[in-house]
Amino acid sequence: MDFNQALELLENMLKERTDNGSYSWGKKQGNLSDRKTDFIYKIRSYSALLEKCQSENLDRPLTEYAKNRWLNFKSAQAIEAMFSQHHSVRKEADQYHQSIDFYINNINFDHKTSQFPRGFGHNLEYALKNKKEIIEWLYKNQSTERRMHFENRLFVILYDTKNKQHWKLKSDLRGIYTKITNYLDNFDQNALIALDQGLLKDGKPSNKIIYSDVIWYVK
Predict the structure, then answer these.
(1) What is the DSSP-derived secondary structure letter of residue 116?
(2) 117, 136, 100, 46: CA torsion to nearest 10
(3) Exposed/middle/buried for residue 198 (C-beta within 10 Å: 0-12, 13-18, 19+)
(4) Segment 148-164, tens digit of pLDDT
(5) Residue 172 and residue 175: Cα distance in Å, rounded?
């Protein structure tokens, strides 16, 4: 099975989640809920996930939490693989590295897929014209769990123009792959957004500059 076939298979699997139910977390994201649902990393299919939630006797809120974590993990895993398919990308050897997923022309990045943030306070048109502002917002409002950091990062931002169900695009893997490939084909390190790490972290200028960019998937 080649990469495109595997991607289509996984996309169909993830759509079993995005086509069923809402994106309600049920519980507040936190380390305790994460530990109780860490089995999601070993679950390959949506049907197996539902069976595992039932066998673990998870209540409904924690089941919703597990379903969303599984979707996010499988989608992020696939998107990381999309980057690694490109000739300009070298995958980080340490799969547990906290701030590096891959290198593009020897520049280290991790990646973060996010639905368009409601808390940003501006519409899509504004965000497209003010990329640095939304990047700064995303860094400052990132989750405080596990992979929180202020290092180089590429953001893949999803926007559903029809129904505003941005989260559902996490399963639209083949469309995202096309966007990522196009971005990498035209990658220009001089077009990256440069940010002062200290200003992002605590509002104090520093000598450390980090680099970021946004890949938009608007459908």
Answers:
(1) P
(2) 0
(3) middle
(4) 789 999 999 999 999 99
(5) 6
